[in-house]
Amino acid sequence: MNRLAPSLLGCDFSCIKDQIQAVEQAGAHYLHLDVMDGAFVPSISFGMPLISSIRKCTGMVFDVHMMVQEPGRYAAAMKEAGADLFCVHQEACLHLDRTINQIKELGMKAGVAINPATPVSVLDCVLDQVDQILIMTVNPGFGGQKFIPYTLDKVKNLREMMNHRGINADIQVDGGVTLENAPLLLKAGANILVAGSSVFSGDPGANTKAFIKILNQYEAKA
Fold it and tell me: pTM for the complete prediction?
């Protein structure tokens, strides 16, 4: 199923509740939550207190993207805060297999993210263990970056690899996703689009509906 995951990093935090409810009412499926530690990436964003607070005002799936070193340390606390899907970076985990098992034992769905310059081949051993693969289409750490064109080939390669092995995990893309490049990403094999600036700049509800229309069109063609 094709889904939209608006990235909270792109919202106006002075009216965060209203903006979350606007995208939910417009049909958004997930809420993408970028947690940054200032070590794995240069920026620092937010953590469990904010996630726990906004959990009270929405029923959307909380898709928590951990851009932190050794994210397994926070898995239990994120589960308690309201995380539904816990996505870790391959580059940030010393023992990725152990971290994936830890996430699943806590009752969350497990995702693994890879940076633009990391080849999809690093996922070969864990591909059948995860619920979602996140291909970063910009270098992580900042919102509003431009889409990196070569990452489109990574999406295609990953989908081909998964089809060959009969694996049905979701492929999510994050970074520089717009209404213009969304069709290319869906054609390549992605089925979850993360969008921050493209959703929250202007009218979040109207922008969400525009993305949902494209997602539905490509669902019909699948």
Answer: 0.95
